[in-house]
Amino acid sequence: MTISQEELDAQSLATLRQYFGYEDFRPGQGALIRAILGGRDVLGVMPTGSGKSLCYQIPSLLLHGLTIVISPLISLMKDQVDGANEIGIPAAFINGSQSIDEQEDVFAAANAGRVRLLYVAPERLETQRFVNFATHADIALVAVDEAHCVSQWGQDFRSSYLGIGDFIDALPDRPTLAAFTATATERVRRDIIQMLGLRDPQVVVTGFDRTNLYFDILKLGTRDKANWIARYVAEHADESGIIYCATRKQTEELADTINALVPQLRAVSGAASPSSSPIAVAYHAGLPPAQRERAQRDFVTDAVPLVVATNAFGMGIDKSNVRYVIHHNMPESIEAYYQEAGRAGRDGEPSRCTLLWNESDIVTRRRLLDNGGANERLTEDEQEQVRRWKRHLLDAMVGYCRTTECLHRYMTRYFGEDGEMPAGAHCVGGCVNCDSTFSTTDVSRIARTISMCVHDLGQSYGSGKIVAVLRGSQAKDVLDRGLDHVPTFGRLADVSQSTVRDVLNQMVSDGFLTITEGRLPIVMFGARAAETIDPAFHYEMKSITRPKPVRPARQSNPALEPTTFGGGHGGTDEALFERLRGLRLDIAREIGKPPYIVFSDRSLRDMATRRPHTDDEFLEVSGVGASKLSKYGERFMQAIADFEE
What sign for the dihedral angle of Cα 330, 331, 335, 336? Predict the structure, then answer.
């Protein structure tokens, strides 16, 4: 018997309320689920924290057979499976950490219908054991998480994703195919559709703006970054955060610095340290697997509030209560930054994303890009195209660091969203640029002189030599090359080295100069170089005056956000929230799972505001379904009653 679309929609909504505890779908979810249940391939491009996983979890309960989820990181699968089982969805995973007998038990459970949702790493699709299972299984849906990894034009290409299309084609009965990502430009979307072989997919792009995130940029010297981070962590010691570093060595050094400095800073301010245990743990791919797993486990279970990591950490990380993400170095692209910063505030609560950068970060990123390893799957011409494309991605990231426009607007426009903000308007989530004032400095003389020096040196030297010549350096290398005899030698001796370097880099960003690729980058004239010899040439640089004190992140939409704490209950909501948070931690330790799997911060805040006393009232709390009511309702309602007494 054919089920009408109206009946499918009603079943989807009933499943949402029963299992997930939400009254209605978020933007994009309903359309994607409707298409999947109708047997149509889909591509969902939705921000981190917008509920992509729900788009395949609900169909897994309503479709006839098994849903396979292809997920890139083995370390996350257990949490994903725990989270699904916690709300009543029978889920399991297959990966290399299991014995053959354990894998066979999972296959048997899936074939018997006792598993509806099966997580698997892309590498597993090529093994004969999994292929044998898949060719005989009743597979209704294959969902590809982090689908941008299939695209050579994305920021996180993984060759293991290239076999997904072949795996689908080899199945005796082609299942519906659903691809999901948080970061995909139009070019990457086309690549995903082609490489995965999506057939006439319904493409849903819900918008890239994360209105609960406050974006901040701070230009700091390399030596100043660690102290700034330590002060921030000391002031937010009860919050969970991630700090991203460019190198493995930096993660370990910064974690050590934080663990040494933060207790001292809190003691000076009169605040007690949260505990005697470490505040920060380091995480990178060079650590032994057991140490890596322990670091991630300590972080997601709130045993330590802070992880200092390379970008090896966090893809698809499910921890919902990360309140801040700090980048110690500039990432290689807007996509990478959006993905990593977006791990803050997955529960929709106000959170902060801060990017620390300086000019040496740009030099480092260009060097890493130029020295990147070859991809044996590509021809030399194709590899050159990819290098040029990644240079373009880096230029956009540099532009983000230098821009004076709204940071939310800069990012959404990069991903192809149009729509101008009214003049003088603040962005919804908040950003340092909208909250700051800017002053301009006339640097026409400096810019013109830099351009003349590039000419004097025959477009044959890097930025370091140009700055040295302009400031009249007496370094042996400068004198041995006879560079003290060029007309512009010492012409900017009255200007600081940092200012000359800043103007030079700004001229690169604005197209007056260009820097070549390769091991020894050379500064050459850009497309606009001729403008600098015009007598009317005028060039300004903007400097930012930051707000003091910095305003905390605003609520994105009062109609959708929890009630403001401190109102409605005599200012006791925050105290009740902390009481409930303590209970959540106790329960999490009892069951051996991360606290956010019990309830998200958003659910606890809504609980503290609503103060439910009956089962029906408890089900009204955001994120509470039948399974969680049964498991935890009595204990949380008792805690609320005890608090009120």
Answer: negative
